[in-house]
Give the backbone structure.
Amino acid sequence: MQFLTEPEPARGEPLPAAPGITRLVAPNSGVMTYRGTNTYIVDTPDGALIVDPGPDDPDHVRATVRAAGPRVAAILLTHTHHDHVGALPALRAATNAPVHAWHAPADPAVVPDHPLRDGDRVGPWRAIHTPGHATDHLCFLGPGGVLLSGDHVMGWSTSVIGPPGGDMADYFRSLHTLLGIDGTLYLPGHGPPLAPPHPFVEALLDHRRQREAAIHAALGQEPATVRDLAAALYPDIDGALRRAAERNVMAHLQKLKQEGRAAEARDGWRAK
């Protein structure tokens, strides 16, 4: 797959992302977060929408409050992984803004003021339930086909699908959901904007199908562990990403099991 790259972005400074939308990149760069978590400030007639507060970092919270201005209408969450919601308590206290998130957050510490279901709206933005990376994952579709895609689709990398919160069958279905929507620009939770998005989503699906086929082909009647399968399928992977690779393999195996194509035993996995 062809992934996107970008230079190190400025910290604490609003960066233009789309008309009426600015982006702040949190200082939590890493192998799983790329340059850092993106927090978006969306201008609306009723005030700013803040999408994904980011990690618990005081400087990032202060920069977000400055960029949002005095009228904050709402805080929106794509999902409740810590790198996206660690700053939520501080931002909530600083803005007194209500929180809009999936009605059943994966993190029980997050209690939305406005629980969302698929199709609900926050101003002109429509919530789209896209489980896969996380059970509570939402994308938000707004004017002009702009989609706040969270960690579901990111141009810099594939998403980690790690059970139990991650589900590969859900992820496949959610990618197909996005292909049925006329999105023109994706603003992801990490990395640069993605346009046009649909060819990349198709490539993600192809990549996952190929990986699934390779995992199924590697299974035989003798049991194979997740670790052995990951080592064979990702021979040159960075050690820091080894655990993520094993989680992806497990997610694929669970999908194959659901489809009756693999069986799990105490000593490993077999073809079925």
